[in-house]
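Usage

Read records sequentially. Each one opens with the input sequence:
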Amino acid sequence: MQQQQPYMHGGYHPYYQQQPVYPQTPYMGAGSAPQQPQNMGYPPFYGPPNPQVAPPNPNMPMPYPYDTGSKYPQASVIPPQAGTSRPHRRQTLPSQPLGTSAGTLRSAMKKTMNVFTNAETAISRQISNPFNNQQTTPTSATHNAPRPRLYSNPAPPQGMAVKDDVFEPDSPPLHMFVSFVGSNELRVENIMKLALDEVRRTIWPLWPDGIESDILQGHNCIVKFRNSPWDLVGPNTRHAYKLIVSFFQLFQMRGYSFQTAVNITTPAPRLIFQVTQPDSKAEFFLAYLSQEGRRFTVVSPPQQIEISIGVRLRSALHRKVVTENPSEEDDSRIIEIKKKPNSNIPEIDPALFFVEILKVLNSLGFQLDATVPLNRRGNLGRRSVRELFLFKTAVHTT
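and closes with the structure output:
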């Protein structure tokens, strides 16, 4: 994967407030004190100005009188007949007999914009068609001859080579999008070829059942694994966890860190990775809460987390943690809190329980870095979302 320069996301200029603007007073001359305006800085209103009549000037030409006769001949208008019963009806001109002369109508005096000749019209039609460079209209064609077809539709003729419009960026993108779709699909968008080759070589083989398809569309890779790894059931569950952790670890090693998740035109959220400082020493592990929020499972935790998390949670929650059982199936540790007497309600609110977990893990040097929602299938075939918490080392000890 290509090394990236550190992305300078900081360095914003501080905010400078504008200087206050004070109202200006007019200068009254030397030795005179400035006077405070009475209108508080607003322009005074004196009403509309009185119109003034310009004085007569005998040397200037007289304006053109608009009531004089027009220089263009006008059609004669016949006055309305006397004694008509409809005085408000619009009078029309009587029809002129053939052979008699009448005044020129205004419609005949309108200019016509016939500035294009037939030859120019034919040239413009040929230029507007993108696929008629080899098609020419014969000059001896008559009006009865059929007009040759010009390929004005967007589909070119058969046999013409068409180049796909593939976006080629000038430089590697600063962001990559990752989506976990369905039960077996993983999409990586805006990925360069060098990064894709490394992901195919190091990440895809971590799933022992192999892949069904690996499609590359432009700079977007869509891979489908066999046997639904995102369901998180069966003997290969720990391999699915390892694949997700290794994916984040490789991106962090090459300088791409998780920033946020957005939903853009897809049901599965897009995880946005942004160019940051490469970190090859970062450690990751996964964890998740049960649906009722009473059981917290840590998947393949580091040694200091596995030893200390249970002891510190019991001390912080006043010994309301009832069990702390390791699971040999997927190398995980389960921490469970007590229930209320004769009830399935936990003694501690799930939100408070999770807050204490974050506090303990932060004191052990790990912080919550990302959440990965997986649309998994339960035992009865129903779909439910399991949200995986990805924890990352906060500081490095040297």
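Summary fields computed downstream for this record:
- The chain is about 15% helix and 20% strand.
- The mean pLDDT is 72.
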